[in-house]
Amino acid sequence: MAGIVAYGVTTDERPLLERALGRDHDLRCLDLVLDADTAATAAGRSIVCSSVNDVLDEHVLRTLAEGGTELITQRATGYNNIDLAAARKLGLAVSRVSCYSPYSVAEFAWALALAVDRRLPRAVARTRDFDFRLDGLMGRDFHGRTAGVLGTGRIGAAFARIAAGFGMRLLGHDVVPNEECEALGMKYVDRRRLFTESDLLSLHAPLVPETYHVVDAEALARMKDDAILINTSRGGLLDAHALVETLRAGRLEGVGLDVYEEEAGVFFFDKSLEVMTDDTLARLMTFRNVLISSHQAYFTRDAVGQIVRTTADNIADHFAGRTGDNTLVPRPSPV
């Protein structure tokens, strides 16, 4: 029986983790973010189950290693929050969830797009006050317009299939074209054309050095004044400061964001009684055509269930000495 501590565990996620891991292991679930201030709470636990907003830099990893941690298994696909080189140097194995339901994120991206287009947040706020006017609530059809998909992996392809169902023209950009998307009629173009021609642009690329701020001031300037921009992938894909300036100029029909570059320490927490010190995020909140959610696109029973099951498999693989697609840093070979 291994000692496991899981960080950033939500109320809805806890019973799933307990069913998957609690019977065979000594599991402790915490709602804390794992960082330099909380790393000592993992002392004596051989496995750390991290979340995407945890800070696993060299200092934190050293604290974990000194406390007896052998494996860090992240309950997410992204892992830019983990210093893999430091983990390797410290003898820590690292795994992740390389894939889960792509429909959870793709469908949520469409939920944001439809809500922004049809002014649903404003409409709901009005009707709660028994104001049933239609003034200022006019949207537009997506049918016949152009959907641009930046990143056409599993999630981007799922988004494209929904767009095809709406009867939209499909443009895509990726390092390697997806044959499934091409079969839908998607035309692959360079980024400049993607930004220029899309009526709806949805971001589904991983965050790597080449995609950092891929949507910057120049890209935003190329977009149509009445375009809709959706980001359910990684906050760092979008230059939020440049987005504020674009919106201040009265451009873009609407924006839906489920991620934000500086979301760590903010998203997943109740900040309602605190002063918001992030001026960019606070300014984005003031625009009526911007809808921000708290990194919840993945948060369905189906996707979280897959994430938990894969995490349990990663732990079993670690003890069996197996590696696979989820392995980021393998278990050190015995001397």
Explain what the structure shows.
InterPro entries: D-isomer_2_OHA_DH_cat_dom, D-isomer_DH_CS, D-isomer_DH_CS1, D-isomer_DH_NAD-bd, D-LDH-like, NAD(P)-bd_dom_sf. By secondary structure, the chain is an alpha/beta fold. It has 2 domains: 3-100 and 300-329, NAD(P)-binding Rossmann-like Domain (Rossmann fold, 3-Layer(aba) Sandwich); 102-292, Rossmann fold (3-Layer(aba) Sandwich). It has helices at 14-21, 58-66, 84-90, 102-117, 120-128, 154-165, 179-183, 191-197, 217-222, 240-248, 279-286, 301-320; strands at 3-6, 26-29, 47-50, 71-74, 93-95, 146-150, 169-173, 187-188, 200-203, 228-231, 254-257, 290-292, 327-329. The strands form 2 sheets. Strands 8-7-6-9-10-11-12 form a 7-stranded parallel sheet, sandwiched between helices. Strands 2-1-3-4-5-13 form a 6-stranded mixed sheet. Strand 11 (254-257), helix 11 (279-286) and strand 12 (290-292) form a beta-alpha-beta unit.
Parts with pLDDT < 50 across at least 5 consecutive residues: none
* Largest sheet: number of strands, sense, barrel closure: 7 strands, parallel
CATH architecture of the largest domain: 3-Layer(aba) Sandwich
SSE topology string: EHEEHEHEHHEHEHEHEHEHEHEHE
Strand order of the largest sheet: 8-7-6-9-10-11-12
Structural class: alpha/beta
- The count of DSSP E runs of length 2 or more, i.e. the number of strands, is 13
The helix content is: 25-40%
CATH topology of the largest domain: Rossmann fold
N- to C-terminal distance: 24 Å
Per CATH, the class of the largest domain reads: Alpha Beta
Radius of gyration: 21 Å
Specify the number of helices: 12
Proportion of residues in extended strands: 5-15%
Q: How many domain regions?
A: 2
Shape: globular
> Could you state the CATH homologous superfamily of the largest domain?
NAD(P)-binding Rossmann-like Domain
| Overall mean confidence score, pLDDT | 95
